[in-house]
Structures are given as C-alpha cells and as structure tokens.
Amino acid sequence: MALLPKALRTRLARTTRLVVGPVGLGFGQDTLKRWAAEQGRTVAYDPSLLPEGPSLLVCLRRSELHRLPPLWTPENALFLEEADTRYTPDDWRQAMPDATPAFLESSYHACDGWPEGLRLALAARSTTLPLHRHPAVASYLERLLPQDDRRDALRRVAAAPLVLDELQDFLGVSVDQVATLFDQGYLYPQGPGLALPRLLRRYLARPPDSERARWLAAHYNERRLYAEALESLADAQLWEAYLERLAESYDPQAGEMALRRHLRDMPPGLHAHPAHRYLVGLLERLHGRLEQAQAHYLASRKGASGELRARIDNARGVTYAIQGKLDQALQALNAAARGARTPRLRGEALYNRAGVLVQQQRHADAEEHLKAAVALFRESAEHVREARTLQLLALSYHQRGLLKEARRGYENVLELLGMLGQPTALIRMNLAEVLLLLGEADASRAQLDQAALSAGENPRARAYVQINRALWYLTQGQAEAATPLLQAVLSRDDAEAFLKAEAQLVQARLLRSSGRPDQGLAHARAAGPLGLRAALEEALCLGEGLDAVIATARQQEARFELTTALLHRGRPEDLREALELIRTHEYRLLLDDPQHVPRLAAVAQQEGLPLDLFPLRMSVFGPFRVKFLGSTLALAAFPTRKSAALLVHLALAGQPLPREVLAEALWGEAGNPLHSLQTALYHLSRSLNAQVVASRRGSLELLYPVVLDYRSFERAVGDALHAPWPVRTEAVREALALAQGEPFLEFPEWFEEERRRAETLKITLLRRLVELEAPQPHKAAEALEVLLKADPYDLDARRTLIGIYAALGQADLARREEERLRLLEQELQP
User: CA angle 255-260-263, nearest 5°?
Assistant: First the structure.
C-alpha cells in the first residue's frame, strides 16, 4: 500500500477524475504513482494527452501545466501542492515504528517532512551522523542534483532557508536562474518565498560566514520569519545570538516539544545565559512545574536587562496568574508593560493583564487593556495576535451581555481571520449565539452553517456546532431536532469538561422548557463549570434561588443573565428593569417567550414607553400568519376571516382609517356594519391577548408597530432595482425570497389592487434577474423558467429560453418550448 500522509489519503478517497501531482523534487511523485496503480488510475506525463478515465498527471516542469486543457479546473480536478504531500510528525512515526524517539525527532527535523527524505531516513535509521552526511544519503542526494550551471545556482540559494525576491542579489543568483530552478521543481513554494528541501539544502550549503548569517537572520526577523531567522543563526552556530532571538520570538503556544527541539543543540557553556534560563523556565511552565518555572525566571531576571527583562516579567505574570496569585501577576505584568521596548511585547503584557482583570471581575479595566493591546498589535502588524485580542475583547462583551459590541467584535475578528486564512468555526459559533440572542435567527443559522463547513474534521469544533445548533432549534420551538444533537455530544467519552458542560446546560433548558424541570435539574448541576449560567438554570429548574443569582449577576455585570432572572422573578420593579435592559441591549430573543412578553408589553403601555419592541409581524404571502407577543397565530385562530382582514386593512394603511370606511368595506352587506366592526375588534383583542387597536375621533389605528411582508417586499424591490452593480443580482434574489407564495391567498375577495401590484413587482424582478443572469446561460434558463411560471404569456421570454436551450445543446427542451410557443401564439391570435 502506498504510504501517503493521512490528510492526503482522506482527500484522495473522495477525489475527482483527475489528480495533478506536485512538481517539487521528491515530493511524493513515486508514492502517488503507486497509489494510482492500486486505484486502477492511468499515470500521464503530458497534459495534452490525458486519457478518458481516472488518471494521475505527473509533470516534470511547472510550465507544462499551462498546456492542461481548459475543461480541467480546480472545481473538477485535484491540484496537489508540495505541502499536501509533506509528512506530519505522526505520519513519520507511523512509517518507522521501530526507530528510536531520538532518531525520529532528529530525522524529521532534518527533512522537515520531505517525502523523499522519509525514504532516506528509512535506509539510514541506525546512523548517529547528521542525516545529510550519511554516505548512502549523500550519494542519493548527489544523483538528484544537476551537473551543469544549475548546480552552482542551487549551492548559492542553499545559503538561505527561504529565498525571497529581495535576497536574490545577496545570494548571487539572477531572476532567470531562480525561475528556472522553480520551474524544474528544485525550489518549491513556501510561505512568502521559495525553498529547497531542507535535507538537500544542508547537503549543498557551504559553511556560512558569520556576518552574512547575522544579516540574513536580521532580515528574516524584520519580515517576521522567525523560524528562518533561527535556522540562519543555527547554521552558522551563532548560539548566543540564536538564544537571544529565540527568547524574543518564541511563542509558548507552539508547545513544549518545539521548545525542546530549539534548545537541544545548545552548547553547555550557554546554559547560564539569562535567555537560556528564561527559556528553561518556559519549558518548566509548559510541563506544569510552576514553582520551578518561577525559580528560573527569578534567576534569569538578575542578569537580564531591557526587552529580555520585560519578557521575563511577562512570563512571571502569566505563571502567577496560573497559580491563582492574581495581585502578584498584575504587578509583574505591569512591570513588563512598562519595561517593554517593542509594541508587540507591550501588547502581550496588556493582553495577559486583561486576562487577570477578567478573573477579578474587573471587566471595564480589562476591556481598556484589550483595546490598547489591539492598537499595539495593529501598529506592529502582529495580525494573529490582534485577532486573538479582538476575540477576547468580543468574548468579554459577550459575557457581560453587551451584545451589539460583541457582534461588531466578532465580525472584525472574522474579517481579520479570513484575511489571514485562519480557522473561523469557533468565532462563527460565538457570533451565531449573539445573533440568536439579538433575535436574528436566520442570520444566526447562516453563521452556524458556515461554522460547520469551517469545522471540517475537527472533532471539538464539530461538537460545538452540534451544541449551538441544538440551542438554535430549542429557541425556535423545535426541541425534537435538538435532542439527538445533544445526546451525540453527551455520549462522547473524549469530550472536554467545558464542552460537555455546554451540552448539559442546553439539555437542562430543553427539559425545563418541555415541562420537566425535575429532570433538567441534574443536567443544570452537571453544567457547574459554566458558573453563573449554570446557577441560573439550576434556580429556574428548582423554582427558587433567583435572589442569589440576581445578586451575582449584578456583581459580575452579566446583563443577559440578570435580565433573564428578573423576568422569571417577575416583580413589577423586576419587569420594569428587565424591559429597560432589553430595550438598551436589544435582547429580542427574550421577547419570543409567551410567558413574559405580554407582561412586558403591559408595563410598556402603563409607563407610556414606545412599543417598538412588540411589533405585529404579519405575513400575507401564502398562508396568513401573525406573530405577536411570543405567539404565532394562523387564520384559524381568529373567530372570523373578516376580523383578520380588518387587521390587514389597518396594517396596509399605516395610518388611522375612519370606522365607517372599514365597516362598509368588510360588513357592507350586514344590517349594522358598525356593530359588526365593534364585535370584530373585541375578537381581535381576545385572539391576540392584548388590545391592539385604538379608537380615536371616529377612526381606528394599530397601537403596535407593524412588520408586514408585503410592505417589506415593496421596499426590497425598490432597493434591488436601484442597487449598485456588484450586489444587484443578490439584491434581486433577496427581494424575490420575500414573495414566496401567492399574495393574500386566504383573502380572495379583498385587496385586489395590492394583489395585482405584488404580482407585477414580482414579474418585474424576474425579468431583471433574467437580464442580470444573461452572461451565464444555465442560470439565465433557470430564471426564465421561473418567470414563465409567473407569466406564461411572455412570448419574448419563451423565445429567449428556446434560444438558450438550443445553445446549450438541450434539443428536447427547446422543442418542448417551441411547441408551447406555437400553441400560445394560436391562442392569442385575434
């Protein structure tokens, strides 16, 4: 069986008819050929002579790919890059199960996952020499190299871990030489430049000059290519400079093994160097030995100054915070921020200080620190750290119930992560929850769908998607869809504690909302790691204990949990405070609860407050629906169709209407139309559980604001027809989406003028969509088919559709439409 990287095997298992292998020298071409043979694929070497069936294309030059026929695009072929065939450390270990850990680590580092290097490591696994000096390896590498002037160019570029455009003069190679080496696969793309396979580079490279190595490292460092800077210094054995650069650039998030590898070759004489003591302290911290870490930090601090001293203070502060010594952590981090000479380090210290302040419930101070850190990271172009800080700032807003601020923060993080090509699943889930609490269920669902795509095969991210989908279903009254999602997470043995706690919390809420609070109580208690949120759910399941929850929520400035608890406690002063919080922070999800929202609306009326939080949402496209005060009513919920029609008349008018006009329009045949009108008003109040119509000076008007899909459609049509070109097609489609179903379907005897206008506007939109989609025949045909369903007598549109079908080679469809056109023309003849 062909030994391919695990991630690549997964991609190839669901691949298309054509796979295009990488060109880079030794990047798995032979292994891919064995895979192709196992799969019954044909191996081709000429892009212009590809066979009909499944195939693998292997080119010797990148320029040969330009001859690939146009029908092969990234959508219907798999184009592999060198990075796709590189082995991970896990792949490397699985390929050599009997090798010693030391050899596995050293050989992987020497080859950097290069597929051809694995073959050489397998052949020389017992060596104690550096792999590129093993005779068999050196002999093989020599055979890979050209013996003409390209060899000299390769030796020159081997002096640099990464070939950047601006380094070509420094290395003594021309643009054409680099282009040739890249075309022929000796160099491959890596980050912002080109590289030789590391094993081959070390075989070719001459002993580097110290000054040139320092210059090269400084240049890489300016470009934030820290790994390349360290490699340049290590090549020249400039270990003291290496240590100082490593202390400056090492990120603890890279992990313990990465740091051990960096320190492995350090000469013993440098072990007392302050930078080395600091890095050993980091290693101790990563290993969980916090007291030993602090001892190393204090020892290293005595001999350190400037930026290194500030970095040591930053590490001390982080370790104190982990130990729960928050006051000492703040002091150390404050010293780090004061002593930092670079924006990046000062930003790190402020970021870490903010984390400690959050633990102390000093959210406002923490947010000021985070804002300052964002500015510093932006100034130093540390975009990943900027995104991480924006994320923590948004999360702080989220936890404090400042949802509008959290939304802007998460959206900024998504934009930045998208620019950086970083994963976005977890951010999208946080944003989805914020949008859900703000009452934007459709936007929330869209973010969850995108989060699911971004999660990929990541089990943790996929589990969080399931939990958030369950919450979405629960809030939309679809508890039956939420249950299996939660059970899938709760049944996992490998799920982390906080992840399971989130699932337990949603499960508790599901059981309580379905009338089983006693069963929900155990799940609420199991969600204990979530703190206040779990305590709130436990109190709601018990039906007691809200006083303590409210006090804690005030202390922690947790506004959303405070609002929820106040609503459930339900005292008059609680409802007034809850209403003000909902209005200020737009907690519209809480206005979907029929248990609370009628009382809130009553408070608003009593206090003379605007009623904009309690709109009458009416749908007249398709079946009639009214959503009001947390309840959704169909036409059958109204005693008579005329009482519902009265509501529609008032909604369409948007202003007071005389009682006589309404009575005559709906009950003109009755003996006493005004009495029938009064009866209908009584029925409306009963059906909607509130007085929604006011009578003033002989006229009637709605007390509550109205959101009517017909009016929304009219506005969307106007916006779509005048939208700027880049968004016009999408605007037209969004407007059409508002007009699903026949207008005023359940009121056929009324609203004839509005019905005709809706149909006219819809046809206008469909014709505009046909024009916009004209450059794409398939989409244009789809738009024409919809248009002809709405207006079968549009003969010009039918003729256009016939022409598109003929151009697409769909003769049967073209003949069908020609026959329909002929019959319609006969029907329309005078």
Answer: 130
For residue 609, the 8-state DSSP code is -
Residues 6+ apart with CB under 8 A from 97: none
Determine the pLDDT at residue 1: 44
Rounded distance between C-alpha atoms, residue 234 and residue 110, angstroms: 13
Largest CA distance in the chain: 111
Question: CB count, 10 Å around CB of 378?
Answer: 17
Residue 260, classed as helix, strand or coil, is helix
The residue type at 86: R
Alpha-carbon distance of 621 to 359, in angstroms, equals: 51
First to last CA, the chain: 76
Q: What is the pLDDT of residues 748-780, one digit of tens each?
A: 999 999 999 999 999 999 999 888 888 888 888
Question: What is the DSSP code (8-state) at residue 223?
Answer: T
Q: What does the DSSP 8-state code read for residue 592? A: G
Q: Give the residue ranges of DSSP H helices in 641-776.
A: 641-653, 659-667, 673-688, 709-721, 725-737, 752-772
**CA atoms of 820 and 830, how far apart (whole Å):** 18
Give the gyration radius of the chain's Cα atoms: 35
| 40-53: pLDDT as tens digits | 999 999 998 888 78
113, 387, 391, 561, 605 from 360: Cα distances, Å: 45, 24, 19, 19, 40
Q: For residue 182, how many C-alpha atoms fall within 13 Å in the half-sphere facing its CB?
A: 18
Helix (H, G, I), strand (E, B) or coil at 235: helix
pLDDT digits (tens, 9 = 90+) for 448-464: 999 999 888 788 899 99
- Dihedral pair phi/psi, residue 504, rounded to 5°: -60, -40
Relative to beta strand 193-195, strand 77-79 is unpaired
As a whole number of angstroms, the distance between CA 395 and CA 402 comes to 10
**Three-state SS for 704?**
coil
Matching residue, tokens 């620190």: 369
Distance CA 193, CA 724 (A): 39
The model's pTM is 0.72
Contact 191, 161 (CB under 8 A): no
Residue 637 in contact with residue 727, Cβ under 8 Å?
no
Non-local (6+) Cβ contacts of 291 within 8 A are none
Spatial CB neighbours of 427, under 8 Å, sequence gap ≥ 6? 391, 410, 413, 414, 417
DSSP assigned state of 41 = P
The Cα–Cα gap between 221 and 468 comes to 41
DSSP string, 518-576: HHHHHHHHHTGGGTHHHHHHHHHHHT--HHHHHHHHHHHT-HHHHHHHHHHH--HHHHH
Interatomic CA distance for residues 151 and 761, integer angstroms: 71
Positions of E strands within 17-149: 18-20, 42-44, 55-57, 77-79
pLDDT band at 2 (very low <50, low <70, confident <90, very high): low
Instruction: Supply 480's token pair.
Output: 């039956």
Cβ of 697: how many Cβ atoms within 10 Å?
7
Can you tell me the mean pLDDT for 159-187? 95
Whether residue 437 contacts residue 403, with contact meaning beta carbons closer than 8 Å, is answered with yes
Structure tokens at 626: 């009214």
Classified as helix, coil or strand, 39 is: helix
Q: What angle do CA 750, 751, 757 make, to 5 degrees?
A: 150
Q: How high does pLDDT run on average in the chain? A: 91
Show the tokens assigned to 657.
């209407």
CA 491 to chain centre: 26
Query: Which burial class, exposed, middle or buried, applies to 446 when counting CB atoms under 10 A from its CB (0-12, 13-18, 19+)?
Result: middle
The whole-angstrom separation of Cα 301 and Cα 298 is: 5
Give the position of tokens 């509008």. Answer: 404
Answer yes or no: are the C-beta atoms of 486 and 467 closer than 8 Å: yes
Phi, psi of 23 (to 5 degrees): -95, -25
User: Which residues on adjacent β-strands are paired with residue 658?
Assistant: 699
Q: Which residue has the tokens 């680590």?
A: 105
